[in-house]
Amino acid sequence: MNKNLIVIVGPTAIGKTSLSIALAKYFDCEIVSADSRQFYREMSIGTAAPTIKELKEAKHHFIQHKSIKEEYSVGDFERDALTKLTELFKHNDYAILIGGSGLYINAVTNGLDHFPETGIEIRKKLQEEYTNKGIENLQQQLKILDPEYYNKVDLYNTHRVMRALEVCISTGLPYSSFLKKPKKKRPFQVIKIGITADREVIYERINKRVDLMIEGGLVNEVKNLYNYKTLNALNTVGYKEIFKYLDNEWSIDFAISEIKKNTRRFAKRQLTWFKKDIEIEWFGYKKNNTSIITYIKKKSL
């Protein structure tokens, strides 16, 4: 097998984009983004999407290729990403997959798990509970019904929490029990690179990034999307907090502090997910790229 997919993972704001561009230049290959928040063209500042300059430095795919008004699932992404990789591997022995979402990375490298159909009544009931009691109520239900998945899911991703509860309630089995199927075979070798740092450094980088987002016009970006705030794509960190400010529920300073806090929580969950993957080779965020390139070349022999 001489086709190699270099997978770059790690917590948000750790420097995955800059590393992916450096590796794309070295291996003369292209980048497939698995960041589900960066799929949407209306969301740029709050998702820390690659800049125009960065996009020119290396060819990227699945960056702002959809509208928030379009439905786009992880299953859709798995299909589209594999199609794109098949095309890329016709001309190159390397391609890069980058992202901070373990679910989307896993969909490409191992394939999605398949779940039983669930009743629409369960979905409606959960939606009503969410509307009336908030996400915390659903989180507690998930903690009881499936503590394993509770400990690794993004608890503030309403769609994923509700989907897990649907399966738990309809089958009487934990959602996580459907996540242990055999991996699908892929026509390429996967080389996983993880980038990390001490927690204090990660949190400092997150806080700085949020400040830069605010300076870069995040409030105006969210304001322009206000009429679509109920869409699932916008139920994400950086947007939902500013909606609270625009609704006069929070001050702008408190909204910013909540973005930082929720992003730090997200980074912690990212690391919890990725640290369980023994296939990932971890490097410090200041590590010289030469050592990473050496590792990749050795693995691809």
Automatic annotation (TrEMBL):
Protein family per UniProt: Belongs to the IPP transferase family.
GO annotation terms (biological process): tRNA modification
Keyword terms, alphabetized: ATP-binding, Magnesium, Nucleotide-binding, Transferase, tRNA processing
Positions annotated to bind substrate: 12-17
Gene for this chain: miaA
InterPro entries given in the database record: Dimethylallyltransferase (IPR039657), IPT (IPR018022), P-loop_NTPase (IPR027417)
Keyword Transferase annotated: yes
Record flagged with keyword Secreted: no
Residue numbers spanned by region Interaction with substrate tRNA: 35-38
Binding-site list for ATP: 10-17
Assigned EC number: 2.5.1.75
Catalytic activity: adenosine(37) in tRNA + dimethylallyl diphosphate = N(6)-dimethylallyladenosine(37) in tRNA + diphosphate
UniProt superkingdom: Bacteria
Protein name as catalogued: tRNA dimethylallyltransferase
Site (Interaction with substrate tRNA): 101, 123
Record GO terms (molecular function): ATP binding; tRNA dimethylallyltransferase activity
Cofactor: Mg(2+)
Taxonomic lineage of the native organism: Bacteria, Pseudomonadati, Bacteroidota, Flavobacteriia, Flavobacteriales
Subunit structure: Monomer.
Pfam families linked to this entry: IPPT
Primary role: Catalyzes the transfer of a dimethylallyl group onto the adenine at position 37 in tRNAs that read codons beginning with uridine, leading to the formation of N6-(dimethylallyl)adenosine (i(6)A).
Principal EC category: transferase
